[in-house]
Amino acid sequence: MKKHLQDAYALRSGKKRTTKKERKVRKQLEKMELGTHVLLEKYPYDIQVKEMRQEFEALWKDSSRKNVRFPPLDPHGITTLRKLAKCYNMNHRKVGKSPKCYTDIIKTAKTNLVKPKYSTIDKIMKGRPIFKRTDIGELDKREKLLLKDKRKKSRGEKASKLNKWNYAEGDVVGANATAIGQNNIGHKLLLKMGWVKGEALGPEGNKGIVEPIEAKVKKTKLGIK
Fold first, then answer.
1. Residue where a domain stops, chosen among 78, 109, 138
2. What Å distances lie between residue 7 and 12, 43, 150, CA to CA?
3. What local confidence, expressed as pLDDT, does residue 36 receive?
4. What's the CA gap between 106 and 97, in Å, rounded?
5. Gap between the Cα atoms of 167 and 162, Å rounded
6. What is the pLDDT of residues 202-214, one digit of tens each?
7. Does one domain contain both 78 and 6?
8. Count of domains observed in the chain
9. Is residue 2 part of a domain?
10. Which residues, given as ranges, of the chain have pLDDT below 50?
11. Using alpha carbons only, how large is the chain's radius of gyration in Å?
12. Which of 37, 111, 161, 162 suits a disulfide with 68, CB 3.0-4.6 Å?
């Protein structure tokens, strides 16, 4: 009887050790599978909504990747990740407990078969622009300077895009605009009616002007120069 109990105990202890080893190996494999796609080091302080989109887009285009892990964010940030996951036809999974609650984004069988909902994604991009991590404490002086430089650079990029269409005094309206393509309906109609590129438009054998009248920006109260 004693030997039987000892054998049963040894068998049970062996199973527990095996299960523990299996769990450890499984966690290591999950970590290896995530690899460099764990974004904790890439975004040490915060993450912008446009950066979220970039990570989703990179995951969607890379067939060798199955998932990506985002750092702990506030509830609004987690909700934004879930909305983006839905738009990209992916699943989301919560890992850990607050304040160290990570969000895993996982591909599904539907991910590469259905095109992402870019119209909804564009609406999400117009919402809150930046989300802070919840697992970091008070920043030191160096970290605050790094974060300030990052945000300053982001604002500079945004301003440069806006300045492309901001006109100064005397600028020609639409000077940066591209020419109308051949697929344009109006362009096709003109070609059908016998118009040739470089030819004027107007009655009596197209004797009108070749170039349209330029509209120049007037922001001051000075007279026309």
1. 138
2. 9, 52, 63
3. 45
4. 19
5. 10
6. 666 667 777 778 8
7. no
8. 2
9. yes
10. 29, 32-36
11. 30
12. 37
Q: Which amino acid is at 37?
A: H
* pLDDT (0 to 100) of residue 35: 47
Distance of CA 53 to the CA centre of its chain: 1
Alpha helices in the chain (DSSP H): 2-34, 49-61, 75-87, 118-125, 141-163, 185-192, 203-206
pLDDT of residue 19: 67
Amino acid 180 reads: I
Q: Which of 100, 121, 138 represents a domain boundary (last residue)?
A: 138
Q: Please give the pLDDT value at position 158.
A: 57
Alpha-carbon distance 61 to 66, whole Å? 11
Whole-model pTM: value is: 0.53
Dist. CA 131–CA 72, nearest whole Å: 10
Q: Where are the alpha helices (DSSP H) in 127-208?
A: 141-163, 185-192, 203-206
Between 49-61 and 75-87, two packed helices, what is the crossing angle to 10 degrees?
30
Q: What token pair was written down for 174?
A: 């639409």
| Spatial separation of the C-alpha atoms in residues 166 and 170, rounded to whole Å | 12
Instruction: Examine the domain organization and report whether 16 and 88 are in the same domain.
Output: no
